[in-house]
Amino acid sequence: MEGLPSNIRSKVEEWLQWDQNSSTRQEVEELVAQKKHKVLEGLLLSRLVFGTAGLRARMGAGYSQLNDLVIIQTSQGLVKYLLEVEPDAAKRGIVIGHDSRHNSHRFARLAASAFLLGGVNVYLLGDICPTPFVPFTVKQLGAAAGVMVTASHNPKEDNGYKVYWSNSAQIIPPHDSGIQESIEQHLQPWPGVWDTQAAEQHERLSDPLDRMAPLYYQALASSMLDVALNGTTPLRFTVTAMHGVGHRYMKEAFKACGFKDFVPVVEQMEPDPDFPTVRFPNPEEGKSALDLSFRAADAADSSIILANDPDADRLALATKQDGAWKVFTGNEEGALLGWWTWQRHKQRSPHTPPEDVYMIASTVSSKILRAIANKEGFNFIETLTGFKWMGNEAVKLLSENKTVLFAFEEAIGFMAGVEVLDKDGVSAGVYMAELASHLHTKGLTLLQQLQIIYQMYGYHASRNSYFICHDALKIKAIFERIRNFSGPKTYPESVCGGKFAVSAVRDLTTGYDSSQADGRAMLPSSSSSQMITFSFSNGCVVTLRTSGTEPKIKYYSEICAKPEQSDWAALEAELELLVSAVVEELLQPQFNELIPKAD
Fold it and tell me: Which of 498, 595, 506, 572 is CA-nearest to residue 544?
């Protein structure tokens, strides 16, 4: 410890006293021996805080990364907070699930140990499962909360801790800050908490997976319009699990809903936490992540690809038409599934008044649902980015006896129905297969139906992408420059040499909205994340924001045509010019050395 500053030394001593994992202990000891004080400072003097419904970070030693000790501390804080605000939580219990990433199995059992020591019953889904199985189980069992150990589509070095509340939706304020405060009050590991073997044998721990999986599939099957018809489709579907948990769950879902077996991408079929065949285990990356899917589909003469991310809560779609593969954007998938959900609803519940029916999308997603709602007479609601907001909005509507049909986010996340109040890539895959089969009986493809939707409700063009930036101070400087563009508290008035005038600015970091009479944004604001939306006089909307789970600056855009407008190419060209100007003039990617999304 010689030469260590006193503040770092005390944290090193604390870590070595509390941590019983030999690997992370050794990591800290080696950093001490190598006198890497700056690294130790970063690892031990700051703590992970709850972001998008929990934690997500790189695995390794220290309070700023994910490891055994941080999982224990987080779980101790969560269970203490849970018992404070949910008086019957001990009896109702907490659901725990995990994916197939490195350490997920162990993290789930360490969490179970803490919850049991806290006096709460534990429902541990004992095998790997999709993320949506946790909120599904919370709802089915009436549990007080749920935890899913997953980092979704993040790189293999990452893991996460996702929290659901008793309403089966992801946590939102004030629970996130309340849990964070409770964590900081219960940092020292409780006696016996490291003994995962004792936890697994505890009388108050049970595994409900064998009960929950059949209920999930039954719910899917009963929601189908015609299970028998599904089995007659000549379409061949290719499905990839992207080295994650999805293969066997999608296989069972297809079987339950009457579909013939799909063509698997064999190389990505079995769980592998190293994700060896993809640079990023994220089907949202498009063609770069779907190469093996294209090959498998071509070899099997399959025309439709359904791709899950590693925890199976997202769905990517690709179809082959005229010899070429088309990868749909999340907004295009949202248009298809939203339209299909409405068609299914009219057949299954024709007497439900449209004014009692709702669809939801996040503010950075396409407004195609709004266009459909306006014409068909049902309601559309816009929320902040993230399914935690959409799920909780659905909870509120359901409490008012409203019918919630569908919610989506452009990042290929879809919630069809309310059995799972979160995005669900398994159910989305089955509904997309049902839609494709239905269209095939009418001689239509998914791409053709998308064009029909645009002709009926207006073309919606979008251009979304991101830059990678690991420097938090640089990101803050970029957004502060935008907020003080030509003087203190001034925003850009136009881009592209005045060609595109800004008609309104909404800044959800500061809570400002120039379109409101009082200058205050209608949606909740948060100073902990960056998000600015520009509305332009030509009707285009562009949003710049930071990711809550990755080192990214994202940009989203959309311009909408009226149904009678037919020159879609001109609209696309106008959008391309405007977005390019916004990116170059406001984000300044070359000056700021931002790394663009890989092709």
Answer: 506
Q: What is the DSSP letter of 151?
A: -
Angle of CA points 211, 212, 213, to nearest 5°: 100
Q: For residue 264, what are the β-bridge partners?
A: 239
Place of tokens 């001490």: 32
Per DSSP, 587 falls in state I
Cα separation, 55 vs 151, whole angstroms: 9
Give the C-alpha separation, 500 to 401, whole Å: 44
Query: 57: which strand partners?
Result: 159
Q: Is 6 exposed, middle or buried (0-12, 13-18, 19+ CB in 10 A)?
A: exposed
Question: Is position 152 annotated as part of the catalytic site?
Answer: yes
Could you write out the DSSP letters of every residue in 102-136?
TTHHHHHHHHHHHHHHTT--EEE--S---TTHHHH
Instruction: Give the three-state DSSP class for 49.
Output: coil
Half-sphere exposure of 213 (CA within 13 A, CB side): 19
pTM of the model: 0.94
Task: Provide the residue-wise pLDDT of the chain in tens; the chain has 599 residues.
Answer: 677 888 999 999 999 999 999 999 999 999 999 999 999 999 999 999 876 568 999 999 999 999 999 999 999 999 999 999 998 999 999 999 999 999 999 999 999 999 999 999 999 999 999 999 999 999 999 999 999 999 999 999 999 999 999 999 999 999 999 999 999 999 999 999 999 999 999 999 999 999 999 999 999 999 999 999 899 999 999 999 999 999 999 999 999 999 999 999 999 999 999 999 998 899 988 778 999 999 999 999 999 999 999 999 999 999 998 889 999 999 999 999 999 999 999 999 999 999 999 999 999 999 999 999 999 999 999 999 999 999 999 999 999 999 999 999 999 999 999 999 999 999 999 999 999 999 999 999 999 999 999 999 999 999 999 999 999 999 999 999 999 999 999 999 999 999 999 999 999 999 999 999 999 999 988 888 899 999 999 999 999 999 877 889 999 999 999 888 889 999 999 999 999 999 999 999 999 999 998 76
Six-digit token string for 492: 């850009």
Helix 68-85 crosses helix 104-117 at what angle (to 10 degrees)? Answer: 40
- CA separation, residue 266 to residues 295, 372, 432, 485 (Å): 11, 39, 22, 52
Q: Which of 75, 152, 362, 462 is catalytic?
A: 152
Q: Which amino acid is at 304?
A: I
CA 582 to CA 596: how far, in whole Å? Answer: 15
At residue 320, what is the residue type? Answer: K
Cα distance between residue 325 and residue 320, in whole Å: 4
Give dist(CA 482, CA 546) in Å, integer: 14
Domains of the chain by range and CATH? Answer: 1-45 (no CATH), 50-207 (3.40.120.10), 218-457 (3.40.120.10), 461-596 (3.30.310)
The Cα-based distances of 187 to 77, 80, 190 in angstroms read 8, 12, 9
